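hiii so um. not sure if this is the right channel but i have a protein structure encoded as tokens and i wanna go backwards to a sequence. like what aa goes where. can anyone help
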């Protein structure tokens, strides 16, 4: 009796990195469980790509809504089975200025989406994967989580939290045979990055990122920076003393705030 095709569950699947990962996994023979707020757009995209209806399902949920996103995970298990890979990809990137009162709400949105939303995306699957003794939980962090960038306090700190959270979860799941993979994208050409007003070295196309991420996830890499050149930059950034790091960033344009 043939084994069923493996299943990958991806949040934030309606655009950018999530969409590129979905298409790469599909072409590699996987079944897809796709989560997004904009389900109509996702349906249109799936139809345009010619995805076979029996190989994918779409779940509507906002990761900031704990009830919605955990319900989507439970529905996936009931409808398609327990995934082999869960990719918590949904995230937002907005600049903020702590001097501006309204930007505290921006920070709340960043944390609710990038951190609480990530944990809630994993929650329906952790116990079942541990009981099964296999599976991969993938957190999409960012190179921006390694050191703080001016005007980017909310995003950088949220992605630093993703890195630490996934490291903690990795230690919890390892005894059960479940792997936790942290992916740190550099600059990827997506709607999130096209609004940036500063240089983006080693800018990568989403499909190229998806190919590299697929390999890292398949290998069970605990921590992977993509592209590799940004990994080198990240190591150098970590090594710089504060006075030199501050000097390097002096005059760097700030991340655009909401509405700019």
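sure thing!! here u go:
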């Amino acid at each position: 009796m043939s084994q069923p095709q493996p299943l990958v569950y991806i949040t934030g699947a309606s655009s950018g990195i999530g969409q590129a990962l979905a298409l790469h996994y599909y072409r590699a023979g996987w079944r897809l469980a796709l989560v997004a707020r904009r389900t109509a757009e996702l349906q249109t995209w799936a139809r345009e790509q010619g995805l076979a209806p029996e190989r994918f399902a779409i779940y509507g949920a906002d990761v900031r809504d704990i009830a919605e996103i955990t319900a989507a995970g439970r529905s996936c298990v009931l409808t398609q089975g327990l995934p082999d890979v869960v990719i918590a990809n949904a995230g937002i990137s907005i600049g903020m200025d702590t001097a501006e009162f309204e930007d505290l709400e921006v920070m709340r949105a960043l944390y609710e989406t990038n951190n609480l939303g990530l944990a809630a995306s994993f929650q329906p699957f952790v116990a079942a994967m541990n009981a099964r003794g296999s599976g991969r939980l993938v957190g999409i962090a960012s190179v921006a989580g390694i050191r703080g960038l001016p005007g980017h306090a909310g995003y950088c700190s949220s992605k630093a939290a993703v890195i630490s959270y996934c490291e903690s979860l990795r230690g919890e799941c390892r005894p059960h045979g479940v792997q936790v993979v942290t992916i740190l994208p550099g600059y990827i050409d997506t709607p999130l990055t096209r609004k940036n007003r500063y240089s983006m070295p080693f800018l990568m196309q989403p499909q190229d990122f998806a190919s590299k991420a697929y390999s890292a996830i398949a290998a069970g890499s605990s921590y992977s920076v993509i592209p590799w050149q940004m990994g080198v930059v990240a190591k150098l950034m970590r090594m710089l003393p504060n006075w030199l790091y501050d000097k390097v960033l002096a005059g760097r344009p700030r991340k655009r705030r909401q509405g700019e």
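oh and The chain has a mean pLDDT of 92.
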